[in-house]
Write the structure tokens for this entry.
Amino acid sequence: MKLEEKEEVTLDAVDMKRPRNGEIWDFELDMPMADGGAGVILGLDGGTTSTVCICMPLIPFSHSQPESLPILARAVAGCSNHNSVGETAARETLEQVMADALSKCGSKRSSVRAVCLAVSGVNHPTDQQRILGWLRDIFPSNVRLYVQNDAVAALASGTMGKLHGCVLIAGTGTIAYGFTDDGKEARAAGAGPVLGDWGSGYGIAAQALTAVVKAHDGRGQDTMLTSSILKTLGLSSADELIGWTYADPSWARIAALVPVVVSCAEAGDEVANKILLDSVQELASSVKAVVERLALCDGKGAFPLVMVGGVLEANRRWDIGKEVVNCISKHFPGVLPIRPKVEPAVGAAWLAWNFFMKECHREICRS
């Protein structure tokens, strides 16, 4: 593209004038000027537990198959949800993981053509604008920047970058998000455990901890969860759960107890089994709400349901993901469950490529 070639002459100069965040970008000082190639794209998946950045080359997909794009580099960092760790920490995490990815593949900011940042905690246009502001402080002005909720990247990871259908994420947190072919979108849940995300890993584990406390003080029935959770945490009594929980009530730390709940349910514990059954209903109701609001299924038509997150992984006899699909199928027989073969950060990179190419096409048509 001639437009890109003209921009390349001055990109490094623009880049070097921009303020650096400490030593994060110092690796660029030892790198040669950009070579005028097609450049790279960055896709980020930022969640409550971790943040992943994927770097891919900006080249056409062979036969329109996005999976043919090679991954040049992958970098991982911690939580980038500003609702969980605050804006300063979230911004530093995002900047560091992008710098790490570019450094690993020998590229610099002047080589970047597009960035798609899909991060949890983006629940309102003001969230998007704030994060776009962060990105504009980091990259040269010619870089195309796109900010989405992390659920959008998860959907794209199962549909080869196409925004159509519904995605259900159930990991530490949970959200259902959907798109129609004409761009309409809707979401359900995703507001955090305080506001009702009880199908999440945090929700499942928090209910299990509550069941242990209730059994201990006489408000609930005895449960195998008590001995299993205490053993897992290295505690000697249910009274110690209070101190353990509030010493660090982070979502991911609590959610790590989900395998214990599943094991107890598989062993026949009624309390654990009920917690999982209730969670299945919660997750299915989120998908149902999105599908109905978008009219994705008329009762006969098919639509993809991308399923992402540790809670939905089919590696246990008590298969939460399978039960969710069975529940949804009763209302929407045309549901087509998809378990992505790539991680959401790759979906974000595919989105960056799609968004970038569409904008370039529009510019060419206008010129």
Observations:
- The two ends are 13 Å apart (CA to CA).
- Residues 193-333 form a domain with the Nucleotidyltransferase; domain 5 fold (CATH 3.30.420.40).
- Residues 270-294 form the longest helix (25 residues).
- The chain has 13 helices and ten strands.
